Structure formats: C-alpha cells, structure tokens
Amino acid sequence: MSGRVEIWHRPTCSNSRGALEILREAGIEPVVVDYIAQPPSVERLRQAIADAGLSVRDAIRSKEPDYAARGLGDPSLSDDALLEAMVAAPILINRPFVFTDKGVRLCRPPETVRELLD
Fold first, then answer.
1. Per-residue pLDDT for 2 more than 70?
2. pLDDT value at position 65?
3. 6-116: which CATH architecture?
4. Which key words are in the record (predicted)?
5. Which has the closest alpha carbon to 46: 5, 77, 82?
6. CA distance 39 to 82
C-alpha cells in the first residue's frame, strides 16, 4: 500500500489494538496518533466522520460516563455541540479511525480495516 496510513489509537482498546495488528501484519507501519493526548480539531473530526460515512452520533462513545455527565444523549443537541464535546473530552471519540488513500473507516470490529488494504 502506498501513501500515508494513520490510526487514531488507544492502547487500552481491544478494537484499536486489533486494527493496528492487522495493519502491521499487512506490512504497514501506520502513523499512530494518541488522539487522547492529541485530540483532532473539530474540523478534522467532522471530516473524518463524514469520510467514514458516519453520523456524529455514530462516532460518539455513548457508554462513556462523560457522555451522560455532559448530557449528550439530549436529541436536541446539534452536531456542532457534540463535536465540541468530543474534542474537549476525546475519550468520547469512538475508535479506532484509520485513514488511508483508499478512505477512512471506524474499524469496529477491527477486521473493518481490511476494506482499506490493497
């Protein structure tokens, strides 16, 4: 595979570890981004979600305690409000997002990453 491959990774997440392992088994050493320590901008997150063909609600971790604590289940909240919350508390961003020349996927389950391989 040519071009840059990037993964928004969380080492404690089995899906994230699994997607990274599949990439490495395919001979790809991706740029590994600790999105908790280095959260994306609202615009980068918005673009990643759109490129993956998801809604903002599809990309938010609704089971995280922060989700309920911030009242993010409120259906009247705009995508912008949700994106701002996700960047402010990146633990709310579902993972792992993988970026390649072939596209972007939220790799849950991790085998989804195979859609991006040559």
1. no
2. 96
3. 3-Layer(aba) Sandwich (3.40)
4. Arsenical resistance, Oxidoreductase
5. 82
6. 14
**Bridge partners (DSSP) listed for residue 102:** none
Burial label for 3, CB within 10 Å (0-12, 13-18, 19+), is exposed
Mind spelling out the 3-state secondary structure of 60-118? Answer: ECCCCHHHHHCCCCCCCCCHHHHHHHHHHCHHHECCCEEEECCEEEECCCHHHHHHHCC
pLDDT of amino acid 1: 55
The pLDDT value recorded for residue 81 is: 98
Question: Residue 115 and residue 109: Cα distance in Å, rounded?
Answer: 12
Active site residue 13: yes
pTM: 0.94
Residue 4 tokens, joined: 């840059």
Return the higher-pLDDT residue of 3 and 35.
Answer: 35
The rounded distance, in Å, linking the Cα atoms of 83 and 45 is 7
* Residues forming beta bridges with residue 31, ordered by sequence position: 6
Q: Which of 55, 53, 56, 43 is nearest to 104 (CA)?
A: 53
